[in-house]
Amino acid sequence: MVAGCSISKPAPASTEGLRAVVGTSLIGAKGKTPADQAGIDETAAGLCAGGVWTKSECARHGKDSRK
What's this model's pTM, rounded to 2 decimal places? Predict the structure, then answer.
C-alpha cells in the first residue's frame, strides 16, 4: 500500500495505486507557465508524500522550483 498524502486513503501497490499517488497533473505540462509549474509541483507532492522520492529529492525539487 502507498498513500498520496496524509489525508489520502491508502492505495494498492498497482498501476491504479500508483496513478492515485502520482495523479495526472503532469500531463501536458511543459514548465513554461505558472499553471505548468503548479502541475509539476502537484505531481512532486504526490511522489514525496507517497515516499517514492526521498526527503532530499523532495527538498531539492522545492528549492529548484523556487529559482
Answer: 0.67
Please check whether residue 45 is in contact with residue 8, taking contact to mean a CB–CB distance below 8 angstroms: no
User: What secondary structure, in 3-state letters, does the chain show?
Assistant: CECCCCCCCCECCCHHHHHHHHCCCCCCCCCCCHHHHHHHHHHHHHHHHCCCCCHHHHHHHHHHHCC
Q: What percent of the chain has pLDDT over 70?
A: 76
Cα 36 to Cα 9, 32, 41, 43, 55: the distances in Å are 26, 6, 9, 11, 23
Q: Where are the domains of the chain?
A: 15-65
The one-letter amino acid code at 19 reads R
* Structure-model confidence comparison of residues 65 and 4, the more confident one: 65
